[in-house]
Specification:
Elements: H1 2-5, H2 18-21, E1 25-31, H3 40-45, E2 48-57, E3 61-62, H4 66-75, E4 79-85, H5 93-102, E5 117-119, H6 134-152, E6 157-160, H7 162-169, E7 181-184, E8 201-205, E9 213-218, H8 221-226
Parallel strand pairs: 1-2, 2-4, 4-5, 5-6, 6-7, 7-8
Antiparallel strand pairs: 1-9, 2-3, 8-9
Helix pairs in contact: 5-6
Length: 230
Amino acid sequence: MAAFAALTVATTVVPVTTAQATQQTLAGFDISESQGVPDMAAAKAAGAVFAFVKDTAGTGYVNPNFLAQFRAAKDAGLIRGLYHYARPDGGSGADQARYLHDHDGKWYADGMSLPPVLDVEDTQGAAPCYGLTPDAMVAWITDFSTTLRALVGHVPIIYTSTRWWKACTGNSTVFSGSHVLWLARYAPDPGELPGGWSLGFWQSATTGPLPGDQDTYFGTLTQLKGLTTG
């Protein structure tokens, strides 16, 4: 998720558009290997309701802190999820969904586990859009999603930016009716949404009062918990 962070200066999580101003929101955060194991109980006391933890990337990386981070979030009573950093230039969508699943990327029917996340964004040093055409990228994401659903019973939440989605999928609307959007945009408001989506989660800053990146869920606690059901 660092690639999006480099595009603009981090800001505080403050929804400001008219429609969003009247919508209930919940605070959360996301972390990777570099954050170690934060004090999750302190994060919850500071207002966090949910947390996402990086698990895998491509078919060759596993976060060495994942289990400790995920268990700490569970012990603190946070609604939690995990994410896979996509590398469409390093294996099929199906292969990467299986790699995630084989490395603790599972879903638990405990009422506190969110569906796994597919993080699609630029990678420094890789070709733009990983060298794929928009149609090929949509097919890759579909391959990941279909395989993950067969493995865990859920399609992934999709993390992306409007810029990346437009450039790399042609602003595809294929996923908007079935996959929750987690938007990356470091600005005072979410701005234009891609692909016909409504806003689920918003990553708005790389630093703030909570550990790691700062996130907002647009909805009620009941709606958030609804994402944890089978």
